[in-house]
5'-nucleotidase C-terminal domain-containing protein (Nocardiopsis coralli), 618 residues
Amino acid sequence: MSRFVRASGALLLSGALVVPSAQAASAEPEQDPAGEADFTLTLLHGNDPESQLLHASGEEDFGGAARYTTLLDELRTAEAAGDGAGEDESDHRGVVAVNAGDMYLPGPEFAASQEEGAPFYDAIAAGYAEYDAVSMGNHEFDFGPDVYAEFIGELPEGTPVVAANVDVSGEPELAALEEEGRIAPSTVLDVEGEQIGVVGALYPDLEAISSPRDVVVDEVAGPVQDEVDRLAGDGVDKIITVSHLQDITNEEAVAAELSGVDAMVAGGGHEVMAGEDDALVPGDEVTEHPGSGDPLSYPLITEDADGADVPIVTAGADYKYVGRLVANFDADGNLVSISDRSGPVVVDDSVEPDPRVQEEVTEPVADHVAELAETEVAQSEVDLDGRQDPGVRTQETNLGNLLADSLLETGQENAEEYQVPEPQIGIQNGGGIRNSSVLPAGPVTALDTYSVAAFANQVAVVPEVPRDQIKELLEHGVSALPNADGAFMQVGGVNFAYDPEGTAQEVDEDGEVLTEGTRVRSAVLHDGTVIVEEGEVVDGDPVSVATNDFSAAGGDSYPFRGADFTVVGSTYQAALEDRLTGTLEGVVSEADYPEGGSGRIVEGEEATEPEDGGEPGA
């Protein structure tokens, strides 16, 4: 197994991921001049394509599944032939291609696959990429396990989904795929006579950020090490992991608990790793390591449990890069060097699109998106603010109000059908508002609603929440300030005031309150009911809440704490579109949604007095 350079590490004892010290975060891998390469493995890798099938967001000349496929094929052929190989590389060589997950993401391009009779376009693209293995990602579960099972079922049978720490036995469709060998803890590849083990892993706290239902995710290090040991016992002497742990420091933490892993491919963090001379997509910058602040060079070197150095690599997101790690092994399977030509390769318009992907994926998806872009659902009299910071993750905005009102209205309209109380409050987490921009006054299209409400989140009603828990929810919404945070809430049906100098509420990952918050000073429902006065909860009836199922299930650590909730037959995107075309009759007025918000969330001791009516938007 790999033993070549020394660096620093960290600790992972359970599901908790601990940030390492990362003193060598940007260190270039040293080569062992005494080591002689007996085999050179080129690891081609991608991660987080996230249904950006047409091109990278805002960059039409970069990315896209069709160009990515061509570049991957060209690199696969060139690397197998040894084109451009350095003196440190072996003539005995092979290539492996993997993807570290988030193969699709709810949004307008993914919506093309949801049309009746349409194929799973992301699966078609992945099929033509001919990956040797892919990891699970969190966004694969945004539509629930059944949709993910459909995706896997449309992958080529030779592309296994690897996940050592995931139990899918509670989901029949995924369990059937596991029985067929389509889902497995690992796979072993025969590459030019060499055995290459690929072990997968997924973020342990999946339930807090997606909708896995009865899929169970264990901590990472133990199950992965068990699988590594099993492969090593079978004589596999070159092992890589392909994992989706959301953050490069989480990968380092896991590496510190493992032994016998030669390289790690990471996904979920969208980090850009590169050397000084590597080309990048315009607007991209090399990511700074969260611990050291140093730029992440390619690869990142970290230390495993035995003191051996392990290279970690990742390749941005959105089909913008193909990562290329050229690893040299000696005759005993030890990693002796990383070739200095390793690094990210940009997917740009110099690459001819793969004609198969162009015809079967790009063209039908582009047609669908064009149709959405031409479908006007409203005219807005005002700019609608969906920026993140300052914006929906730090303060009330009119677009945030519109989303929260849409949840509340849908919850109220569908309450009788789904046998739940009519909600009185709407809560939309700021992290779920995804356009990250201002929609200018003028036409609002169906495509805009997808860019704003990009996930598959369902409108959910949490019935009869006690008032002290309502205060905890409001406290959670402002607990991260002044920092921007996805948990910052946009609200409907309630106005509240907070003191930024008060004690910030702290909760654990299960939403249990560890430190009581004192920031929320006043809260009043839009029908005039006072919930909080002078920082104290006013006794009274419980309050039902409309939110999205991500938040209701404890996403962003919202303190619902396992409360029962009911999804009420609509995604939050559909709720937004329905409000625009229905109640608002195609007009977003300045009176209803003034720029800067309408005073629903203010600093101070007294909440703004609500207008009469109690209807969403009032």
Summary: The chain has a mean pLDDT of 92. The first helix runs from residue 65 to 81. Residues 166 and 217 are 5 Å apart (CA to CA).
